[in-house]
Amino acid sequence: MIKPLPLFIGLRYTRARRRNRFVSFISASSMLGIAVGVMALITVLSVMNGFEKELRERILGMVSHGTVQAYNGAMEDWQSLLPVLDARESVIGAAPFINGEVMITRGASVTGALVRGVDPQREPSVSRIASSLVRGELADLQPGAFRVILGSRLAAELGVLPGDAVSLITPEVRASAAGILPRLRRFEVAGIFEVDMAQYDGSLALIHIADAQRLFRLGSGVTGIRLEFSDLLSAPGQVRTIARELPGDYLISDWTMQHRNFFRAVAMEKTVMFIILMLIVGVAAFNIISTLVMAVQDKQSDIAILRTLGAPPTTVMGIFIIQGSLLGIVGTLIGAAAGIGLALNVETIVPAIEQLLNVQFISGDVYLISELPSDLRLPDVVRITVSAMVLSVVATLYPAWRAARTAPAEALRYE
């Protein structure tokens, strides 16, 4: 336990104007280094948390929590399964779907795309596509009308707007008098959606499930049924339970099977980034060691007088532990305040800098999202703050131990 005497002297040394200006400079730089390190840690982890949150919401807004499919070919009995799935308490949405790959043409423009046949009535219960429409509505997809809703980047690449016509060419071929020809169908563009993810905005097209059945010659079958659960994290166990309870054999999958490695990579990247940026705080902590070593050398005569008056070595240690810890604690608190302020306003600051410099830091053509999100979490702030304070305190132990071993006779020999 630190007694009042070392506390009083340690605070006095901290406030006192030092005779050695270099020691003062090192003290200020070590405090600033800790502040910068803590600020960078809080800001970077908040941004990475924001990326993880946005990606999870956007990916899972387009990818279902779970799917049920037939083992071979199309699922023919899907209509009888829907009431069974709807009756489950954990299932908040179930919708049939058809997936297929096509080429979309408009004049001289040709591009590949993934076509998804959807039920406009059920699709909003398993995806966020309805809330992402910038032109048109899901209800515009009517059976037999052969209308299509395109992603914003896909529509821009083809140069089309609602009301224009595009041709969908399937990989299947048909024999005719003119020879082997690919199967194609003309569709009218009924709407445009934008989820701000290039993966979907640039390659996904939605059509009515009845039109998809005719386009891909599936008869009354579908690719499978998409499921939305009330608890996202319970999806792996839920789909397995459903597979066991449904009559017949089905192929099941959940979102973790498709994106588990991706989210694991994000979590690992956060851990590595924490360790790397914590090295900044470690460097600042070494500056505290340098500061205290020089302070001990500067206060040799004071230490000797205290020892001569009967102060034990623990009191001398306490003085310099308090002096160095105060530098670390103040720097940590300043950095935490700056980091919290920056993390809370990064979504405003970065666009302002981009507009000022006329640059774009995150391109949607390269990254999955095109803005810099932030998600400040209290546990991260506490972990960073406590780690920085502990490092600061640990950095004071060696210089304080050196000060406690000062021999009064040697220190006062030349005084």
How would you sum up this structure, described in words?
The chain has helices spanning 4-15, 21-62, 78-86, 152-158, 198-201, 209-215, 235-245, 255-298, 300-308, 313-357, 378-395, 397-404, 408-411, and strands at residues 66-69, 91-106, 109-118, 133-135, 147-151, 165-176, 179-193, 204-208, 224-229, 251-254. The chain is of the alpha+beta class and 415 residues long. The protein has two domains: 4-58 and 262-411, no CATH class; 71-249, no CATH class. It has a six-stranded mixed β-barrel with strand order 2-3-8-5-7-6. A hairpin with a 2-residue loop joins strand 2 and strand 3. Helix 2 (21-62) runs antiparallel to helix 8 and helix 10 (313-357) runs antiparallel to helix 12. The radius of gyration is 33 Å and the shape is elongated.
Quick summary:
53% of the residues lie in helices and 19% in strands. It is α+β, with helices and mostly antiparallel strands and 415 residues long. It has a 6-stranded mixed β-barrel with strand order 2-3-8-5-7-6.
Radius of gyration: 33 Å
How many strands in all?
A: 10
Count the DSSP helices.
Answer: 13
* Uncertain ranges: none
User: Oligomerization state of this entry?
Assistant: single chain
Main beta-sheet strand count, sense and barrel state: 6 strands, mixed, barrel
Helix content: 40-55%
Indicate the overall shape.
elongated
Tell me the domain tally.
Answer: 2
Series of H and E elements? HHEHEEEEHEEHEHEHEHHHHHH
Strand order of the largest sheet: 2-3-8-5-7-6
Give the N-to-C terminal Cα separation. 33 Å
Averaging pLDDT over every residue, what do you get? 78
Helix-strand makeup class: alpha+beta
Beta strand %: 15-25%
